Amino acid sequence: NRTFIISPYFDGRESKVTRVIGIVHHEDVKQLYCWFCCQPNKIYVSRAKIDVHSDRFEFPYGATDIVCLEPQNCDPTHVSIHQSPHGNIEQLPRFEIKNRKAETFSVDFTVCISAMFGNYNNVLQFIQSVEMYKILGVQKVVIYKNNCSRLMEKVLKFYVEEGTVEIIPWPIDSHLRVSSDWRFMHDGTHIGYYGQITALNDCIYRNMQRSKFVVLSDADEIILPLKHPDWKTMMSSLQKQNPRTGVFLFENHIFPKTVSTHVFNISSWNAVPGVNILQHVHREPDRKDVINPKKMIIDPRKVVQTSVHSVLRAYGKSVDVPMDIALIYHCRVPLQG
After folding, report:
1. Would you give the DSSP letter of residue 281?
2. Which residues of the chain are in CATH 2.60.40 domains?
3. In angstroms, rounded to a whole number, what is the distance separating the alpha carbons of residues 111 and 214?
4. One Pfam family of this protein, by short name (predicted)?
5. pLDDT averaged over the chain?
6. 169, 218, 296, 318: which has the fewest Cβ within 10 Å?
């Protein structure tokens, strides 16, 4: 199989299309068709435009938009994808087309954490990050979960029941040989970093109608406002200063977990596996010739395709947020020294 479907979304921003977020082999898939079910027994078949995202990092498979014009006189609720315009629709899997109905925003900020994998067990840092997100004004954290430790499962269950976390199962390694590297190492793998880019794109569309902003970052990263008490006041100020901007980029700064302070050495936390971010407050120095990667807060309705550190296609402008306004606190192994 060379085509994998994540989810179809209605996208009426330019014309009336169904945009299917998927993963496709960049050379082997030449044509696909959307089969729309309109009235009973009325099938409408539309040839798809297969748009493999440019940021594939040389892997054979990449995040892909499979885009089909919808029939003018019908708003299909489901679609099937097939490599031929002929066949029996009964034998094809049907996918519900999301975002069909306009909704009012239910949350201001949704954080997308793409691909939790590798028996993830950094429990303490995860809890601290989620609690920090809540202080900053986040109402929803969406996690594309491949796997994690049993203790982490308990933590996720707590946050799901609380209503903070939404889990999207992400069993990508059952279908493709995944790499935990972001670029292709010519090692027979199919797709990079557990399909992170596909998950991020899905997360944007999944939250397009329900979240005012979507935040694309990792579980060990927190966008810290330095002049505002929370993200809402920061973003309203940034939007005033930057009208027609859909993408706000924040600079990543590493706070090495190897350099500690003894403040907040809380003994009752010692039994919890993971990093205590409150003890790691020293930032690696800036290097003149090194550009720090960025992560983003976006208006999802203005974004068409995203990569990890920038968007690939958007309707609005992108703006780099100065470091005195906010920076990304990224607590991990050091890059320097």
Report:
1. -
2. 3-96
3. 6
4. Glyco_transf_92
5. 95
6. 169
